[in-house]
TrEMBL record:
It is an enzyme of class 2 (transferase). This is Small RNA 2'-O-methyltransferase. The keyword RNA-binding applies. InterPro entries: 3'-RNA_MeTfrase_Hen1_bac, Hen1, Hen1_N, Hen1_N_sf, Methyltransf_12, SAM-dependent_MTases_sf. It comes from Blastopirellula marina.
Length: 464
């Protein structure tokens, strides 16, 4: 089985530093089930490819097994030496463990830098078909190419096999790429070559906790990774849910008490929702996404407008969605009214097919809660994959902060804000996103406008 990782980032040979494997040498590593070889088919400033080749010894794997076990022949005659499986995950952890842990002494700045990578797996067993490949990789921001093989070319009537050559591409950190592969390879195979116990649950949470909690297919991933052991799966999902709710909110849209204190004299939150609602109505949209819906204040306004026939609110926080359900009194709404509204748990930094096909989307005070690398993922999830006709984005205007005497100089309005942009910075970001994804954008002020510093909230309306 073969894993090939390539990059065109320049200098591309930096891949050698990240992998801790020199491009000029073939390196061989002994494993309990065979050998792993690392080599570079090409290594130049413009393009670099690194291969991890696993040479499985099927006899060595069986050595020491109890001969009284049933189907001993099956231990020798199987597809394990030829396909990507949990054996490859083990090889990634043992041979590329330093890279997967995110350590690089020579060039530490590269560890946290998303780079353009592609990874090819020859050959991957996918128990679930090509759509399953897309459902697992695409929410993580990858594009997927898959070539399926027949069971036997000499007997086409036998049909297709579950085996694919798979290539995924994305701009990600190498650490994330390796971690995604480590967790998902045995999930596609739906099998493991070793006993799964409590330690495997801890591995899953350690390797996947940072991204798995918000993945739309987290239950399926968890169940397969833990070999359908019900008690372990339940424990893992409970801990992922707790992890999701206790980590700092990265995508809230509701104002904090600190923001409410600042903005109350202006009723800015009401003005903001009013401006967004007016823009959505003017767009002619019939179906609307409220992304980062928080506790449902905008959803409540949308429900009052008959124009909007399908309304979806999505948030990363289960707790916020529970508040939204209570605020909107979903259990008391008339059936026709309730059918118009759907609440979804999900993250805006992963592709989610549930968000595709809508007329419009609103992100109200969301983007400033994201670190820049995650902001780039949100751009793709919303503008490239979901791709509504209209996208409305609001964010604080940092220049206006001087108008609040109670806000210390240099401090953000919310302690979870990762940035607050000036009007020039917001315009530069919005125009770049619009150009990259085939949109046009115009800007409107929200709230009282000062001649020097502008309005407290800035709004961009993207249309295509």
């Amino acid at each position: 089985m073969l894993l090939t990782i390539t990059t065109d980032y320049q200098p591309a040979t930096d891949l050698g530093f990240l992998l801790h494997k020199h491009p000029d040498r073939l390196q061989t590593f002994d494993l309990s089930f065979g050998q792993a070889h690392v080599f570079y088919p090409s290594a130049s400033e413009a393009h670099c490819a690194a291969c991890l080749l696993l040479d499985v010894d099927p006899v060595g794997m069986v050595r020491g097994k109890n001969r009284n076990q049933g189907d001993l022949l099956g231990h020798y005659v199987n597809d394990r030496p030829y396909v990507a499986s949990s054996l490859l995950s083990v090889a990634i952890a043992q041979v590329l463990g330093t890279a997967m842990a995110g350590r690089c002494q020579q060039k530490p700045e590269l560890v946290a830098t998303p780079l353009p990578f592609s990874a090819r797996l020859d050959v991957l067993p996918v128990r679930g078909g090509e759509r399953f490949l897309q459902d697992l990789f695409e929410p993580l921001g990858y594009t997927v190419e898959a070539e399926r093989y027949p069971l036997d070319e000499a007997f086409p009537e036998w049909g297709e096999s579950p085996y694919y050559s798979v290539t995924i591409r994305a701009t990600v950190t190498l650490r994330d790429l390796l971690t995604h592969l480590y967790v998902l390879i045995p999930v596609f195979d739906n099998e493991k070559h070793y006993f799964v116990g409590e330690d495997e649950l801890e591995k899953l949470l350690a390797k996947g906790g940072s991204w798995l909690a918000a993945h739309p297919q987290k239950e399926q991933i968890t169940r397969r990774y833990l070999r359908h052991r019900h008690s372990l799966t339940r424990q893992a999902l409970d801990r992922l849910l707790a992890m999701d709710e206790t980590e700092p909110k990265s995508e809230p849209s509701e104002t904090s008490p600190q923001e409410e204190t600042l903005e109350k004299p202006l009723s800015l939150n009401d003005q903001r929702h009013g401006a967004v609602l007016a823009a959505l109505k003017a767009s002619g949209a019939r179906s609307v996404l409220d992304l980062g819906c928080g506790e449902g204040k905008l959803l409540r306004d949308l429900l009052q407008e008959k124009q909007f026939e399908q309304i979806v609110g999505m948030d990363v926080s289960i707790r916020s969605l529970e508040f939204a359900q209570k605020r909107l009194k979903l259990d008391r709404l008339p059936p026709r009214q309730a059918e118009r509204l759907t609440l979804l748990h999900g993250s805006l930094i992963y592709r989610d097919r549930r968000l595709e096909g809508f007329d419009a989307a609103a992100l109200v005070e969301v983007i400033e809660h994201l670190d820049p690398p995650r902001l780039a993922a949100l751009e793709r999830a919303v503008f490239e994959f979901a791709r509504p006709q209209t996208v409305i984005v609001t964010t604080p205007n940092q220049e206006y902060n001087v108008m609040w005497e109670t806000l210390p100089a240099g401090q953000f309005r919310h302690n979870d804000h990762r940035f607050e942009w000036t009007r020039h910075q917001f315009a530069a970001w919005a125009e770049k996103v619009a150009q990259q994804h085939g949109y046009q954008v115009r800007f409107l002020p929200v709230g009282p406008e000062d001649e020097k510093v502008g309005s407290p909230t800035q709004m961009g309306i993207f249309t295509r």
